[in-house]
Amino acid sequence: MLSSLLVADLFALLLIFVRTGSALMVLPGFAEAYVSPRIRLLLALPVSLALAGPLAPALPAMPAEPLALARLLGAELVLGLFLGTAARFAFAALHVAGTVLAFQSGLAAAAIFDPNEATQGTLPGSLLTTTALVLLFVTDSHHLLLQALAASYVGLPAGLAPPFGDMAELLTRLLGEAFAVGVRIAAPLLLVSLLTYLAMGVLNRLMPTFQVFFIALPLQILAAFATIMLSLGAGLLVFFELLENALALLAGG
């Protein structure tokens, strides 16, 4: 009797660990390039232990057949990756905004290594993502990620087949919203750049021999820096609204 209870408890912990560990391998803030995968899995273990108590009664029993067990664990792995990817899609808005800001400010050629994506990125994009990650932990918003992971068992209970159609629809919706939010974050600089280009065009028409580009480029970069500085706070508020909405959708299944 005691051995059967121990096996059931260990299986429940394993089932939760599979979803939690796979989600933490992708979740923003926890799954950055400079965080070791072993650290992510070690963090998933205490999170799974904390969730095992309240979630254990609602989990399915351990299957008797190895194939059914593999299918159950595979479904939890897919759901965990889906939850982490959906939250990661919200951060795509910052990369879209950073790319637009870089092209409009004349800094597109100044590519640097982005540690968040482990690849080349733009200066505004790195600024936005780094600032958002700092605020994510300073404001304890990373707790919302873990709460959404725990609440996902309500809309996506363990033991059922993953709803791939609904998952694909949700990811597509989040990606579209991320692109729209990215453009909204870059909207102040788009307006300033439009006015700058109009002024440069008028000046070039008035004085065709005047080297407008070489004179206006430093002013354009200065105006871009000032606009980014003034609109950074509002842009990050818009981003965190998107992240909160994405987590609400995940919690609701």
Task: Please specify the SSE layout and strand pairing.
Elements: H1 2-24, H2 37-55, H3 66-105, E1 112-114, E2 119-121, H4 123-138, H5 142-155, H6 164-206, H7 212-251
Antiparallel strand pairs: 1-2
Protein model, in words:
This protein is an all-alpha fold and 253 residues long. It has one domain. 77% of the residues lie in helices and 2% in strands. It contains seven helices and two strands, in the order αααββαααα. The protein has helices at 2-24, 37-55, 66-105, 123-138, 142-155, 164-206, 212-251; strands spanning 112-114, 119-121. The protein has a two-stranded antiparallel ribbon. A hairpin with a 4-residue loop joins strand 1 and strand 2. It is elongated. The two termini are 36 Å apart. 30% of the residues are buried. The model has no long low-confidence stretch (mean pLDDT 83).
Categorize the overall geometry.
elongated
Unreliable segments (pLDDT under 50, ≥5 consecutive)? none
- Mean pLDDT, rounded to whole units? 83
| Secondary structure tally: strands | 2
The gyration radius over C-alpha positions equals 23 Å
Largest sheet: 2 strands, antiparallel
Euclidean distance between termini CA atoms: 36 Å
Structural class: mainly alpha
The secondary-structure element order is: HHHEEHHHH
Q: In which order are the strands of the major sheet placed?
A: 1-2
Q: Helix tally?
A: 7
Helix content: over 70%
Share in β-strands: under 5%
Number of domains: 1
Please name the defining characteristics of this protein.
253 residues, mainly alpha, 7 helices, 77% helix
Brief digest:
By secondary structure, the chain is an all-alpha fold.
